[in-house]
Amino acid sequence: MKNILLTILLTGLTAISVAAQNTEKGVDTQTKSIQKETKVNDRSHDVGRSFSFGKGKTKIRAKLDNPYPLTARRDFLIDTISGVLKDNKMILDESASKLNQGLIVTKPYTFSKGVILTKNEINRYADTLSPDQVFSRGRFSLTVEVQSIDGIRNNVLVNASVEGRSENGLFSEWTNLSSSGEAEDEFLAKLVEALGKDLNEEGRKP
Question: In 45-107, which ranges are E strands?
Fold first, then answer.
């Protein structure tokens, strides 16, 4: 009787052990499969990835020479300059300009408003004195000189006067900043395009 009971007990324990092992193997296999699949598919937090948009798709143009040489009649060139300024919503300062002498001056043009936007934009157009400077607005005015070389050749010189406005709640003031050359280059590029010329022609810096 004891032998029969012992045999039944051993058989039961063996069956339980085998079932447990099979269950453990199943879980282990499934877990490994899930981990492997997750590792392959979940890339949302993979900070090591980098995106390539292809070489040559983003080209940075070198700044144009300033003054920039242009072949065009002086009067036609002055009219084109005035048109480019008007198209870009820049107002001519008639009291300061002397068109018959090839001098064109604009009134201040506000290129940014708001602290966050102005911080980024003013760093493009000016060399700020200190990284701690906070401006709520940025503006610049342009002085364009058409310098005659001969009857059909002229140099166009552009200077930008950049300012940043700071406020403390009680009063505000405009601070003169050193131009980075970006405003001058942007205007020259638009002028060259308005004349139907290629930016890769003479006058471009290497």
Answer: 68-71, 103-105
Name 112's Cβ contacts closer than 8 Å, sequence gap at least 6.
Answer: 118, 120, 121, 122, 137, 138
Rg (CA), the chain: 36
Single out the residue of 100, 33, 63 nearest to residue 185, CA to CA: 63
Task: Say which amino acid occupies 190.
Answer: K
Query: Residue 92 — φ and ψ, nearest 5°?
Result: -70, 135
User: What span, in angstroms and rounded, lies between the C-alpha atoms of 187 and 206?
Assistant: 19
Cβ–Cβ < 8 Å for 34, 173: no
Quickly state the pLDDT bin for 44 (edges 50, 70, 90): very low
- Joined together, the tokens standing for residue 139 give 């503006």
**Do residues 82 and 103 touch, judged by C-beta distance below 8 A?**
no
Whether 90 contacts 106, CB under 8 Å? yes
> What does the alpha-carbon distance between residue 65 and residue 204 come to, in Å, rounded to a whole number?
6
pLDDT at 98 over 80: yes
- Between residues 143 and 200, which one has the greater pLDDT? 143
Let me know the angle formed at the C-alpha of 151 by 150 and 153, rounded to the nearest 5 degrees. Answer: 60
Q: Per the structure block, which two tokens stand in for 145?
A: 């000189």
Please check whether residue 160 is in contact with residue 141, taking contact to mean a CB–CB distance below 8 angstroms. Answer: yes
